[in-house]
Amino acid sequence: MRFVDILEKKRDGHELTREEIEFFIEGYTNGTIPDYQASAFLMAVYFQGMTAEEQGHLVMAMVNSGDTIDLSQIEGIKVDKHSTGGVGDTTTLILVPLVAACGVPVAKMSGRGLGHTGGTLDKLEAIEGFQIELSEQAFIDQVNTLKAAVIGQSGNLTPADKKIYALRDVTATVDSIPLIASSIMSKKIAAGADAIVLDVKVGEGAFMKTVEQAEQLAHAMVNIGEAVGRQTMAVISNMSEPLGEAIGNALEIEEAIATLKGEGPEDLTELCYVLGSKMIVAAKKASSFEEARHMLKTVIEDGSALQLFKEMIEAQGGDGTIVDDPKRLPQATYTSEVLASQDGYIEKIIANDIGVAAMLLGAGRATKEDEIDMAVGLRLHKKIGDVVKKGESLVTIYSNKEDVTTTREKIERAIQISATKVEKQPLIFETIG
Ligand code: URA
Ligand code: CA
Protein backbone atom coordinates (compact mmCIF):
# COMPACT_ATOMS: atom_id res chain seq x y z
CA MET A 1 0.00 0.00 0.00
CA ARG A 2 1.28 3.50 -0.80
CA PHE A 3 0.01 6.26 1.43
CA VAL A 4 -0.06 8.70 -1.48
CA ASP A 5 -2.76 6.58 -3.13
CA ILE A 6 -4.85 6.72 0.04
CA LEU A 7 -4.42 10.49 0.12
CA GLU A 8 -5.57 10.78 -3.47
CA LYS A 9 -8.60 8.59 -2.77
CA LYS A 10 -9.69 10.68 0.22
CA ARG A 11 -8.92 13.93 -1.56
CA ASP A 12 -11.32 12.89 -4.32
CA GLY A 13 -14.06 12.08 -1.83
CA HIS A 14 -14.05 8.28 -1.93
CA GLU A 15 -14.68 6.02 1.03
CA LEU A 16 -11.60 4.38 2.55
CA THR A 17 -11.48 0.75 3.61
CA ARG A 18 -10.68 -0.50 7.09
CA GLU A 19 -7.23 -1.63 5.86
CA GLU A 20 -6.45 1.82 4.45
CA ILE A 21 -7.45 3.57 7.67
CA GLU A 22 -5.45 1.09 9.75
CA PHE A 23 -2.48 1.69 7.44
CA PHE A 24 -2.68 5.41 8.23
CA ILE A 25 -3.02 4.99 12.00
CA GLU A 26 -0.30 2.36 12.30
CA GLY A 27 2.05 4.24 9.98
CA TYR A 28 1.57 7.59 11.65
CA THR A 29 1.89 6.18 15.17
CA ASN A 30 5.10 4.28 14.40
CA GLY A 31 6.60 7.13 12.39
CA THR A 32 6.72 5.57 8.91
CA ILE A 33 4.15 8.12 7.70
CA PRO A 34 5.65 11.61 8.12
CA ASP A 35 3.84 14.67 9.47
CA TYR A 36 3.48 16.24 6.02
CA GLN A 37 1.54 13.30 4.64
CA ALA A 38 -0.54 12.99 7.80
CA SER A 39 -1.31 16.73 7.55
CA ALA A 40 -2.54 16.27 3.99
CA PHE A 41 -4.70 13.37 5.16
CA LEU A 42 -6.29 15.39 7.96
CA MET A 43 -7.00 18.29 5.59
CA ALA A 44 -8.58 15.91 3.08
CA VAL A 45 -10.82 14.55 5.87
CA TYR A 46 -11.60 18.10 6.93
CA PHE A 47 -12.99 18.88 3.47
CA GLN A 48 -14.38 15.50 2.42
CA GLY A 49 -15.68 14.20 5.75
CA MET A 50 -15.93 10.52 6.60
CA THR A 51 -18.77 8.01 6.50
CA ALA A 52 -19.98 6.39 9.71
CA GLU A 53 -18.15 3.19 8.69
CA GLU A 54 -14.89 5.06 8.12
CA GLN A 55 -15.25 6.76 11.50
CA GLY A 56 -15.84 3.38 13.15
CA HIS A 57 -12.67 1.99 11.55
CA LEU A 58 -10.73 5.10 12.58
CA VAL A 59 -11.89 4.80 16.19
CA MET A 60 -10.98 1.12 16.48
CA ALA A 61 -7.60 1.70 14.83
CA MET A 62 -6.90 4.47 17.36
CA VAL A 63 -8.06 2.24 20.25
CA ASN A 64 -5.71 -0.51 19.04
CA SER A 65 -2.76 1.90 18.76
CA GLY A 66 -2.12 1.59 22.51
CA ASP A 67 -3.17 -0.04 25.77
CA THR A 68 -6.78 -0.69 26.63
CA ILE A 69 -8.32 -1.11 30.04
CA ASP A 70 -9.93 -4.47 30.64
CA LEU A 71 -12.92 -4.07 32.95
CA SER A 72 -14.32 -7.54 32.31
CA GLN A 73 -13.77 -8.49 35.97
CA ILE A 74 -16.41 -5.93 36.90
CA GLU A 75 -19.91 -7.35 36.84
CA GLY A 76 -22.52 -5.57 34.81
CA ILE A 77 -22.54 -3.08 31.97
CA LYS A 78 -19.90 -0.40 32.45
CA VAL A 79 -21.27 2.97 31.40
CA ASP A 80 -19.00 5.95 30.93
CA LYS A 81 -20.07 9.56 30.69
CA HIS A 82 -18.27 12.25 28.76
CA SER A 83 -18.77 15.98 28.59
CA THR A 84 -17.32 18.00 25.76
CA GLY A 85 -16.43 20.61 28.34
CA GLY A 86 -17.82 23.77 29.80
CA VAL A 87 -17.57 26.22 32.66
CA GLY A 88 -18.25 25.04 36.20
CA ASP A 89 -19.37 21.59 35.08
CA THR A 90 -19.69 19.58 38.28
CA THR A 91 -21.81 16.79 36.79
CA THR A 92 -19.21 14.00 36.87
CA LEU A 93 -18.59 14.46 40.60
CA ILE A 94 -22.30 14.07 41.23
CA LEU A 95 -23.12 11.37 38.69
CA VAL A 96 -20.47 8.89 39.84
CA PRO A 97 -21.94 8.29 43.34
CA LEU A 98 -25.51 9.02 42.21
CA VAL A 99 -25.63 6.40 39.49
CA ALA A 100 -23.53 3.95 41.51
CA ALA A 101 -26.09 4.20 44.34
CA CYS A 102 -28.64 2.90 41.79
CA GLY A 103 -26.50 -0.21 41.24
CA VAL A 104 -24.64 0.84 38.08
CA PRO A 105 -20.90 0.09 38.24
CA VAL A 106 -18.97 3.30 37.54
CA ALA A 107 -15.28 2.84 36.80
CA LYS A 108 -14.29 6.38 35.96
CA MET A 109 -10.97 7.42 34.53
CA SER A 110 -10.67 11.14 34.58
CA GLY A 111 -8.27 13.81 33.54
CA ARG A 112 -6.69 16.92 34.88
CA GLY A 113 -7.74 20.13 33.27
CA LEU A 114 -6.29 23.06 31.48
CA GLY A 115 -8.60 26.02 31.73
CA HIS A 116 -11.10 27.65 34.02
CA THR A 117 -10.98 25.15 36.85
CA GLY A 118 -9.15 21.89 37.26
CA GLY A 119 -10.60 18.70 35.84
CA THR A 120 -12.51 16.17 37.92
CA LEU A 121 -9.27 14.75 39.33
CA ASP A 122 -8.05 18.15 40.47
CA LYS A 123 -11.38 18.83 42.12
CA LEU A 124 -11.23 15.54 44.03
CA GLU A 125 -7.75 16.46 45.22
CA ALA A 126 -9.31 19.40 47.05
CA ILE A 127 -10.29 16.63 49.51
CA GLU A 128 -7.42 16.02 51.88
CA GLY A 129 -5.78 12.64 51.34
CA PHE A 130 -7.76 11.65 48.23
CA GLN A 131 -5.67 9.25 46.12
CA ILE A 132 -6.20 9.27 42.39
CA GLU A 133 -3.58 6.62 41.71
CA LEU A 134 -4.83 3.10 42.28
CA SER A 135 -3.47 -0.05 40.68
CA GLU A 136 -5.73 -1.46 37.99
CA GLN A 137 -6.65 -4.33 40.33
CA ALA A 138 -7.46 -2.05 43.28
CA PHE A 139 -9.58 0.08 40.94
CA ILE A 140 -11.54 -2.96 39.73
CA ASP A 141 -11.93 -4.33 43.28
CA GLN A 142 -13.28 -1.01 44.53
CA VAL A 143 -15.86 -0.85 41.75
CA ASN A 144 -16.95 -4.40 42.55
CA THR A 145 -17.40 -3.67 46.26
CA LEU A 146 -18.54 -0.02 46.26
CA LYS A 147 -19.75 0.37 42.63
CA ALA A 148 -17.68 3.53 42.20
CA ALA A 149 -14.08 4.66 41.79
CA VAL A 150 -12.44 7.63 40.10
CA ILE A 151 -8.78 7.45 39.11
CA GLY A 152 -6.29 9.19 36.87
CA GLN A 153 -5.55 7.76 33.49
CA SER A 154 -2.67 5.30 33.54
CA GLY A 155 -1.03 3.38 30.77
CA ASN A 156 -0.51 4.40 27.21
CA LEU A 157 -4.08 4.89 25.98
CA THR A 158 -4.71 5.94 22.35
CA PRO A 159 -1.21 7.24 21.47
CA ALA A 160 -2.48 7.75 17.90
CA ASP A 161 -5.03 10.26 19.19
CA LYS A 162 -2.37 12.18 21.13
CA LYS A 163 -0.16 12.46 18.07
CA ILE A 164 -2.99 13.34 15.69
CA TYR A 165 -4.50 15.87 18.10
CA ALA A 166 -1.18 17.69 18.36
CA LEU A 167 -0.91 17.78 14.56
CA ARG A 168 -4.51 18.99 14.16
CA ASP A 169 -3.75 21.82 16.53
CA VAL A 170 -1.13 23.25 14.14
CA THR A 171 -2.79 22.38 10.82
CA ALA A 172 -6.19 24.07 11.32
CA THR A 173 -7.98 20.70 11.39
CA VAL A 174 -9.26 20.63 14.96
CA ASP A 175 -12.87 21.54 14.16
CA SER A 176 -13.71 18.65 11.94
CA ILE A 177 -16.71 16.70 13.25
CA PRO A 178 -15.45 13.21 12.24
CA LEU A 179 -12.04 13.92 13.78
CA ILE A 180 -13.48 15.27 17.04
CA ALA A 181 -16.01 12.44 17.27
CA SER A 182 -13.45 9.70 16.70
CA SER A 183 -10.96 11.34 19.07
CA ILE A 184 -13.47 11.39 21.94
CA MET A 185 -14.95 7.95 21.26
CA SER A 186 -11.55 6.24 20.96
CA LYS A 187 -10.60 7.40 24.46
CA LYS A 188 -13.87 6.19 26.00
CA ILE A 189 -13.61 2.79 24.34
CA ALA A 190 -9.94 2.34 25.27
CA ALA A 191 -10.91 3.08 28.89
CA GLY A 192 -13.23 0.06 28.83
CA ALA A 193 -16.71 1.53 28.35
CA ASP A 194 -19.47 -0.86 27.25
CA ALA A 195 -21.90 2.03 26.86
CA ILE A 196 -21.38 5.78 26.65
CA VAL A 197 -23.51 8.77 27.58
CA LEU A 198 -22.37 12.04 26.04
CA ASP A 199 -23.08 15.56 27.20
CA VAL A 200 -22.45 17.75 24.18
CA LYS A 201 -22.26 21.35 25.32
CA VAL A 202 -23.34 24.15 23.08
CA GLY A 203 -22.96 27.88 23.38
CA GLU A 204 -20.48 30.59 23.93
CA GLY A 205 -18.70 28.72 26.76
CA ALA A 206 -18.34 25.52 24.72
CA PHE A 207 -16.42 24.04 21.81
CA MET A 208 -19.59 23.87 19.66
CA LYS A 209 -21.06 27.32 19.20
CA THR A 210 -24.39 26.42 17.56
CA VAL A 211 -27.05 23.79 18.25
CA GLU A 212 -26.68 22.61 14.65
CA GLN A 213 -22.94 21.92 15.10
CA ALA A 214 -23.60 20.20 18.42
CA GLU A 215 -26.26 17.99 16.80
CA GLN A 216 -23.85 16.98 14.07
CA LEU A 217 -21.19 16.07 16.61
CA ALA A 218 -23.66 14.18 18.80
CA HIS A 219 -25.05 12.19 15.87
CA ALA A 220 -21.53 11.41 14.64
CA MET A 221 -20.59 9.98 18.05
CA VAL A 222 -23.83 8.01 18.43
CA ASN A 223 -23.30 6.54 14.94
CA ILE A 224 -19.73 5.58 15.78
CA GLY A 225 -20.94 3.89 18.95
CA GLU A 226 -23.42 1.91 16.91
CA ALA A 227 -20.81 1.00 14.30
CA VAL A 228 -18.47 -0.42 16.97
CA GLY A 229 -21.10 -2.10 19.16
CA ARG A 230 -21.20 0.33 22.11
CA GLN A 231 -24.60 1.71 22.97
CA THR A 232 -24.23 5.49 22.89
CA MET A 233 -26.68 8.21 23.87
CA ALA A 234 -26.27 11.97 23.84
CA VAL A 235 -27.71 15.08 25.39
CA ILE A 236 -27.17 18.54 23.92
CA SER A 237 -27.05 20.98 26.79
CA ASN A 238 -26.71 24.72 27.10
CA MET A 239 -23.37 26.30 27.93
CA SER A 240 -24.12 29.90 27.12
CA GLU A 241 -24.16 30.56 30.86
CA PRO A 242 -22.17 28.56 33.46
CA LEU A 243 -23.79 25.42 34.87
CA GLY A 244 -24.79 25.56 38.53
CA GLU A 245 -23.51 28.25 40.85
CA ALA A 246 -19.99 27.26 41.84
CA ILE A 247 -16.86 27.61 39.72
CA GLY A 248 -13.77 26.46 41.55
CA ASN A 249 -12.42 23.20 42.87
CA ALA A 250 -13.40 22.99 46.57
CA LEU A 251 -16.48 25.10 45.80
CA GLU A 252 -17.62 22.52 43.24
CA ILE A 253 -17.07 19.65 45.69
CA GLU A 254 -19.32 21.54 48.08
CA GLU A 255 -21.84 22.03 45.27
CA ALA A 256 -21.72 18.31 44.45
CA ILE A 257 -22.44 17.48 48.10
CA ALA A 258 -25.40 19.88 48.15
CA THR A 259 -26.77 18.36 44.93
CA LEU A 260 -26.42 14.81 46.28
CA LYS A 261 -28.50 15.99 49.25
CA GLY A 262 -31.18 17.36 46.93
CA GLU A 263 -30.19 20.95 47.71
CA GLY A 264 -28.23 21.77 44.57
CA PRO A 265 -28.87 24.39 41.87
CA GLU A 266 -31.86 23.60 39.69
CA ASP A 267 -30.06 23.42 36.33
CA LEU A 268 -27.23 21.24 37.60
CA THR A 269 -29.68 18.92 39.36
CA GLU A 270 -31.86 18.55 36.28
CA LEU A 271 -28.89 17.83 34.00
CA CYS A 272 -27.73 15.15 36.44
CA TYR A 273 -31.20 13.60 36.35
CA VAL A 274 -31.21 13.53 32.55
CA LEU A 275 -27.68 12.18 32.15
CA GLY A 276 -28.06 9.81 35.11
CA SER A 277 -31.30 8.37 33.70
CA LYS A 278 -29.56 7.65 30.43
CA MET A 279 -26.68 5.94 32.24
CA ILE A 280 -29.08 3.73 34.21
CA VAL A 281 -31.04 2.73 31.10
CA ALA A 282 -27.80 2.08 29.19
CA ALA A 283 -26.68 -0.17 32.07
CA LYS A 284 -30.06 -1.98 31.81
CA LYS A 285 -30.91 -1.26 35.46
CA ALA A 286 -34.18 0.35 34.39
CA SER A 287 -36.34 -0.10 31.31
CA SER A 288 -37.47 3.50 30.95
CA PHE A 289 -36.11 6.97 31.66
CA GLU A 290 -39.05 7.61 34.00
CA GLU A 291 -38.21 4.56 36.09
CA ALA A 292 -34.54 5.58 36.13
CA ARG A 293 -35.37 9.13 37.22
CA HIS A 294 -37.44 7.74 40.06
CA MET A 295 -34.47 5.62 41.18
CA LEU A 296 -32.21 8.69 41.16
CA LYS A 297 -34.72 10.67 43.18
CA THR A 298 -34.96 7.87 45.73
CA VAL A 299 -31.21 7.59 46.36
CA ILE A 300 -30.99 11.35 46.83
CA GLU A 301 -33.93 11.46 49.23
CA ASP A 302 -32.87 8.47 51.34
CA GLY A 303 -29.28 9.70 51.62
CA SER A 304 -27.68 6.67 49.98
CA ALA A 305 -26.10 8.64 47.10
CA LEU A 306 -24.39 10.99 49.54
CA GLN A 307 -23.34 8.06 51.73
CA LEU A 308 -21.79 6.37 48.70
CA PHE A 309 -19.81 9.53 47.90
CA LYS A 310 -18.46 9.49 51.46
CA GLU A 311 -17.54 5.81 51.24
CA MET A 312 -15.80 6.33 47.91
CA ILE A 313 -13.77 9.22 49.32
CA GLU A 314 -12.75 7.14 52.32
CA ALA A 315 -11.92 4.08 50.21
CA GLN A 316 -9.52 6.28 48.27
CA GLY A 317 -7.82 7.65 51.39
CA GLY A 318 -9.69 10.94 51.59
CA ASP A 319 -11.28 12.77 54.49
CA GLY A 320 -14.93 11.63 54.27
CA THR A 321 -16.05 14.02 57.00
CA ILE A 322 -16.10 16.84 54.42
CA VAL A 323 -19.42 15.35 53.30
CA ASP A 324 -20.94 16.17 56.71
CA ASP A 325 -19.03 19.41 57.10
CA PRO A 326 -17.97 20.97 53.76
CA LYS A 327 -16.26 23.81 55.66
CA ARG A 328 -13.44 21.32 56.23
CA LEU A 329 -12.56 21.78 52.54
CA PRO A 330 -9.90 24.39 51.73
CA GLN A 331 -11.35 27.84 52.42
CA ALA A 332 -10.34 31.12 50.79
CA THR A 333 -9.02 33.95 52.97
CA TYR A 334 -11.04 36.73 51.35
CA THR A 335 -14.54 37.03 49.96
CA SER A 336 -16.01 39.99 48.13
CA GLU A 337 -19.15 40.68 46.16
CA VAL A 338 -19.78 41.92 42.63
CA LEU A 339 -22.88 44.10 42.82
CA ALA A 340 -25.49 44.87 40.19
CA SER A 341 -25.08 48.36 38.74
CA GLN A 342 -28.77 48.74 37.83
CA ASP A 343 -32.25 47.24 38.18
CA GLY A 344 -33.43 44.87 35.48
CA TYR A 345 -33.12 41.33 34.17
CA ILE A 346 -29.97 39.30 33.63
CA GLU A 347 -29.46 39.20 29.89
CA LYS A 348 -26.07 37.56 29.51
CA ILE A 349 -23.58 35.73 31.67
CA ILE A 350 -20.74 35.11 29.24
CA ALA A 351 -19.62 31.69 30.40
CA ASN A 352 -16.15 31.78 28.96
CA ASP A 353 -15.31 35.14 30.53
CA ILE A 354 -16.63 33.99 33.92
CA GLY A 355 -14.39 30.95 33.56
CA VAL A 356 -11.38 33.12 32.80
CA ALA A 357 -12.19 35.29 35.83
CA ALA A 358 -12.06 32.15 38.01
CA MET A 359 -8.80 31.10 36.40
CA LEU A 360 -7.25 34.51 37.15
CA LEU A 361 -7.88 33.82 40.83
CA GLY A 362 -5.92 30.57 40.54
CA ALA A 363 -8.83 28.11 40.19
CA GLY A 364 -7.48 26.71 36.92
CA ARG A 365 -4.31 26.28 34.94
CA ALA A 366 -3.26 28.42 32.00
CA THR A 367 -0.30 26.11 31.32
CA LYS A 368 0.37 22.52 32.37
CA GLU A 369 2.92 23.67 34.96
CA ASP A 370 0.58 26.02 36.84
CA GLU A 371 -0.52 25.11 40.34
CA ILE A 372 -4.18 25.21 41.25
CA ASP A 373 -5.46 26.99 44.34
CA MET A 374 -8.19 24.63 45.52
CA ALA A 375 -9.96 27.20 47.72
CA VAL A 376 -10.59 30.00 45.26
CA GLY A 377 -13.35 30.59 42.74
CA LEU A 378 -16.72 32.16 42.18
CA ARG A 379 -20.28 31.61 43.26
CA LEU A 380 -22.96 32.96 40.93
CA HIS A 381 -26.22 34.11 42.45
CA LYS A 382 -28.15 34.76 39.25
CA LYS A 383 -29.12 33.00 36.04
CA ILE A 384 -30.13 34.48 32.70
CA GLY A 385 -33.71 35.79 32.96
CA ASP A 386 -33.56 36.45 36.72
CA VAL A 387 -34.76 39.77 38.13
CA VAL A 388 -32.04 41.86 39.72
CA LYS A 389 -32.03 44.97 41.89
CA LYS A 390 -29.31 47.59 41.86
CA GLY A 391 -26.78 46.87 44.63
CA GLU A 392 -27.72 43.16 44.88
CA SER A 393 -24.85 40.67 44.77
CA LEU A 394 -24.38 38.95 41.41
CA VAL A 395 -21.27 36.97 42.27
CA THR A 396 -19.19 36.20 45.35
CA ILE A 397 -15.45 36.10 44.72
CA TYR A 398 -13.43 33.70 46.90
CA SER A 399 -9.74 34.60 46.78
CA ASN A 400 -6.44 34.24 48.55
CA LYS A 401 -5.28 37.68 47.49
CA GLU A 402 -6.73 40.93 48.62
CA ASP A 403 -6.66 42.72 45.29
CA VAL A 404 -9.10 41.11 42.87
CA THR A 405 -9.57 44.12 40.58
CA THR A 406 -8.88 42.31 37.30
CA THR A 407 -11.24 39.46 38.20
CA ARG A 408 -13.93 41.88 39.29
CA GLU A 409 -13.68 43.91 36.08
CA LYS A 410 -13.85 40.78 33.99
CA ILE A 411 -17.02 39.64 35.79
CA GLU A 412 -18.62 43.08 35.51
CA ARG A 413 -18.11 42.99 31.75
CA ALA A 414 -19.31 39.37 31.49
CA ILE A 415 -22.70 39.96 33.11
CA GLN A 416 -25.09 42.15 31.20
CA ILE A 417 -28.34 43.51 32.61
CA SER A 418 -31.31 44.54 30.47
CA ALA A 419 -34.04 46.96 31.52
CA THR A 420 -36.65 44.84 29.74
CA LYS A 421 -37.72 41.27 30.50
CA VAL A 422 -35.42 38.48 29.32
CA GLU A 423 -36.52 34.89 28.69
CA LYS A 424 -34.83 32.07 30.59
CA GLN A 425 -32.55 29.86 28.51
CA PRO A 426 -33.43 26.21 27.84
CA LEU A 427 -31.13 23.78 29.66
CA ILE A 428 -31.40 20.92 27.18
CA PHE A 429 -31.89 21.33 23.45
CA GLU A 430 -32.13 17.72 22.42
CA THR A 431 -31.55 14.18 23.57
CA ILE A 432 -30.48 11.40 21.23
CA GLY A 433 -30.91 7.71 21.94
N1 URA B 1 -11.82 16.75 22.67
C1 URA B 1 -11.16 15.66 22.28
O1 URA B 1 -10.87 14.77 23.06
N2 URA B 1 -10.80 15.54 20.98
C2 URA B 1 -11.09 16.47 20.08
O2 URA B 1 -10.74 16.29 18.92
C3 URA B 1 -11.76 17.63 20.49
C4 URA B 1 -12.13 17.74 21.80
CA1 CA C 1 -20.82 24.37 38.91
TrEMBL record:
Coiled coil: none annotated. Keywords: Glycosyltransferase, Transferase. Residues 345-418 form the Pyrimidine nucleoside phosphorylase C-terminal domain. It is an enzyme of class 2 (transferase). The keyword tRNA-binding does not apply. It catalyses: uridine + phosphate = alpha-D-ribose 1-phosphate + uracil; 2'-deoxyuridine + phosphate = 2-deoxy-alpha-D-ribose 1-phosphate + uracil; thymidine + phosphate = 2-deoxy-alpha-D-ribose 1-phosphate + thymine. Catalyzes phosphorolysis of the pyrimidine nucleosides uridine, thymidine and 2'-deoxyuridine with the formation of the corresponding pyrimidine base and ribose-1-phosphate. This is Pyrimidine-nucleoside phosphorylase. It comes from Savagea faecisuis.
